Amino acid sequence: MLDKLTQIVILATLQREENFTRTAERLGISKSHVSKQLTALEDSLGCQLVERSTRTLHFTEIGREYAQFGATIIAQFEDAEAAVRSFKNEIAGTLRVALSPLLESQPLFALLGEFQRDYPALSIEVTIADPYTQPSQNLDCYLSGSEITEQEVASDLLHRDGHWQRIDFARFEQILVASPAYIERHGSVTTPSELAKHQCIGSVSTSAIGVGSLGLGSCGISASGTQRNDWWLSKDEHTQKVALNLGLRFASPSMQVQAAKQAMGIALVSSYVLQDEIHQGELVRVLPEWHSAHPYVLSATLLKEKHQNPRIRCFLEFVAARLSPGTFLSW
Questions:
Q1: Closest CA to 58 of 4, 14, 6
Q2: Average pLDDT, whole number, for the chain?
Q3: 27 contacts 13 by C-beta, under 8 angstroms
Q4: Which of 20, 182, 199, 294 could potentially form a cystine with 147 if both were Cys, beta carbons 3.0 to 4.6 Å apart?
């Protein structure tokens, strides 16, 4: 039994490292021992788990599936160690985080390095995942962002087996922006209804690209094939729907910001994705008293059994404190 556990851990590590040398270094064993244990495991199971040559290796279908059991064993062992360390107020081990594709280049990504510097005993593994695919149970948490209305749909998909928990840890206002050059060329906007006369920058619908949109409203396809965006704007207690035909659409909020900076139109984007563009004069507010009726929400999805994991709690509290000061996470 102990030999088999060692072998499956070696297999899982090999799948993650994709290299015999790195696997040996990570486990503190020789490269030949990795190869020997892999061969012994295949012999005992009576099937090939990894196809290997002098330069490459490729996991067979059964090999990938079997390695996932090993990854689960490793994750559970690290959780057990983390539970012990929590009694000593020590944050260590490995934190496995998956990001929505559209969070990859935004402020959250920059915080990962700062967090690791604050907790040097902790290593962080980051992957980019499809938000409409069930997260791997080996993950510590999956981070995503979206309008609250779209996120509720995604949450329903992610929680359908009852094992997942979502924690919303930051909310941001969505505002209208444009470049000074665009305003000079096309004139200012004084009422929401005037937006219909302007070039506006929209988002690609989640159904069109197959991933959870961080976008700008409820998107659809008309009978003529023209995509349409409806922006719901709020001012004080008043909410107004603005229907727009959008000729320019992007999947990423950061791409929408770049398009607005290039005077391509007016964009409705979260303050989360804006850095210093307004302060530096690259963008200006349009209808500054109005904002989207739907807030932009950052959330973490994790297994319910992991919600007390000290690594995860420390990480989410760290991110929330920097992105949304004053946020209280309800555990």
A1: 14
A2: 79
A3: yes
A4: 294
Q: Check if the beta carbon of residue 95 is closer than 8 Å to that of residue 312.
A: yes
Beta-sheet strand order (sheet of 122-128) = 122-128, 93-99, 141-147, 296-303, 164-172
End-to-end CA distance of the chain: 38
> pLDDT tens digits for 130-188?
655 666 667 888 888 877 664 454 444 454 456 778 888 788 889 999 999 999 999 99
Which two three-digit tokens encode residue 272?
């989360």
Strand partners, 168: 299
Residue keyed to tokens 């981070």: 143
Question: Which residues, 6+ apart, have CB-to-CB distance to 194 below 8 Å?
Answer: none
Place of tokens 């035909």: 245
Q: 175 near 271, Cβ under 8 Å? A: yes
Asked if the domains at 91-171+297-323 and 174-294 fall in one CATH topology, the answer is: yes
CATH topology (fold) of 2-67: Arc Repressor Mutant, subunit A (1.10.10)
* Maximum alpha-carbon separation in the chain: 75
E strand or H helix at 265: none
DSSP state of 217: S
Could you give the CA distance from residue 217 to residue 214 in angstroms, rounded to a whole number? 9
Query: For 213-234, what is each residue's pLDDT tens digit?
Result: 333 233 322 223 335 468 999 9
Domain ranges of the chain: 2-67, 91-171+297-323, 174-294
Which pTM does this prediction carry?
A: 0.61
- Whether domain 91-171+297-323 has CATH 3.40.190.10: yes
Contact by Cβ (8 Å): 273, 145? no
Collapsed DSSP state (helix, strand, coil) of residue 164: strand
Amino acid present at 113? G
